[in-house]
Amino acid sequence: MANNPNPKTLESLVSTMHHLSTNLIIDVDSPWIKTFLDLDHNNNSSPLIAADPVLSTLVAHLRTLMETLKGLQDYSFGSFVRRWLLNFEIAAVAGEILGNVKGSLDREMMERVVSVLREAGNDEGKMRVLGWFYKRVCKGFDMGLQDLVLRMRVFELLESVVCDGECVLVREKAAMAIAALAGFNKVVFVGLVLMGHTVKGLVSMGTSCSLRVLGSLIRLIRGHLVDEIDLSGDIPKIIGYLGSEDESVPAMALDCLLEMTFYGRCETVEMMVECGLIEKLVFLQRQETCEKGEGQEVNEDVDEEDVFEDHPFVGCVARFALQVEMGKGMESDGKSRIKTEILWRAREASVSEAEAATLVAALLWGSFS
User: Fold this and answer.
1) How many angstroms separate the CA atoms of 176 and 134, rounded?
2) Most C-beta atoms within 10 A of its C-beta, which of 158, 181, 234, 272?
3) Which secondary structure element, helix H or strand E, spans residue 211, and what is its range?
4) How far apart (Å, rounded) are the C-alpha atoms in residues 93 and 86?
5) Got the DSSP string for 34-58?
6) How far apart are CA 109 and CA 10, in angstroms?
7) 325 contacts 335 by C-beta, under 8 angstroms
8) pLDDT in tens for each of the 369 residues of the chain?
9) Torsion angle in degrees (nearest 10) through CA of 284, 223, 230, 250
10) What pTM does this model have?
11) Who's near 61: CB < 8 A, 6+ residues apart?
């Protein structure tokens, strides 16, 4: 245990440094000062500090500054000026210590993440380190953390877990971590997503979580990722998930397809239509309508998003047509051609004149009900 930092000591040190670095008026009798001065920085309770000469020097300097501040408690003008200057210096040194400690903790944890992900089995350990990594990345951009991720080739490890992992839950955690990295710094990690096999892994996984991650990546990367999905031949697979027996999977697949329609090029959307998407949507909408109950009273106070959450395929044909109309990747001529095809296919897929009339009205007037 001597080689491992005492978690309570480090937690106390981090919270104290955060307080000191953000408060320019320091009370020498405050519990923060007492906590810092009571910490034993030179024994094994904090080897993280003892092992880092820069950090040790900064901590010793801060201790000296605090002792000096405690000795300046008279009310002379000279003492007032010196206390004022010392407060600024203490805040600056505390901020530097905080950055160093967080960097050291990140480095130790990243080494742990890499070590565990390279192990065979140990799914529980992988879930824990991936959970920590996801939360750490979601705290926001940090250059030091980015350098660690790139230097330790963490992205490649996460991608290998997504594509080749044996435990679905671990693969889903890794997928969430990749999505978090893409949002962490789009300039760096979006390129890695596009050049690697992440998308293939997400589509092949075919769970509601993997499709949710894919949808979030489409919203983040937009047309470039839609082109990649099209070129990799994964559109039919995503459409196929509309027929999954897992109730949550079809809804996430629809979300991906709607996002792809909004950001995709005309050729991509035409491919989706040619793969029988409209016919599937008509069937699923009919099924949803039957389950919802056509005679049920409509509650006008219910938010539209809540309706789609509970009944994801309500008005899905019209919603798809609306995405075509609003899409950013298509020209007006292509949109008109696709909408005509949607109208024809929806009418052909109808099982009655009444259903065909309802679908045509919804497509022409934009009604989702």
Assistant:
1) 7
2) 158
3) helix 208-221
4) 10
5) HHHHHS-TTSTT-HHHHT-HHHHHH
6) 14
7) yes
8) 345 555 556 777 788 888 888 877 777 677 767 767 776 544 444 666 777 788 888 988 988 898 888 888 777 888 888 888 998 998 999 999 999 888 888 998 999 999 999 999 899 999 999 999 999 999 999 999 999 999 999 999 999 999 999 999 999 999 999 999 999 999 999 999 999 999 999 999 999 999 999 999 999 999 999 999 999 999 999 999 999 999 899 999 999 999 999 999 999 999 999 999 999 999 999 998 887 655 454 455 555 555 667 789 999 999 999 999 999 999 999 999 999 999 999 999 999 999 999 999 999 886 655
9) -20
10) 0.85
11) 93
Tell me the residue type at 90.
Answer: I
Distance CA 252, CA 210 (A): 9
Provide the sign of the torsion angle of the four alpha carbons 204, 205, 207, 211, taken in this order.
negative
Counting every residue written for the chain, the total comes to 369
- Which two tokens mark 345? 């296919």
What are the two backbone dihedrals, phi and then psi, of residue 247, each rounded to the nearest 5 degrees? -60, -30
Tell me the C-alpha distance between 13 and 309, whole Å.
Answer: 45
> Is residue 242 within 8 Å of residue 284, measured between CB atoms?
yes
Contacting residues for 257 by C-beta, under 8 A, at least 6 apart: 238, 239, 272, 277, 320
**Strand, helix or coil for residue 163:** helix
Q: DSSP letter string over 98-125? A: HHHHHHHHHHHHHHHHHHHHTSSS-HHH
**Which residue, among 37, 23, 32, has the nearest Cα to 68 in the 3D structure?**
37
What count of Cα atoms within 13 Å lies in the side-chain half-sphere of residue 212?
A: 11
Secondary structure (3-state) at 264: coil
DSSP annotation of 241 reads G
Residue 193: helix, strand or coil by DSSP? helix
* CA–CA gap between residue 73 and residue 59 (Å, rounded): 23
Contact 178, 193 (CB under 8 A): yes
Structure tokens at 188: 């760096």
Residue 283: both structure tokens together: 């069937």
Distance CA 319, CA 315 (A): 6
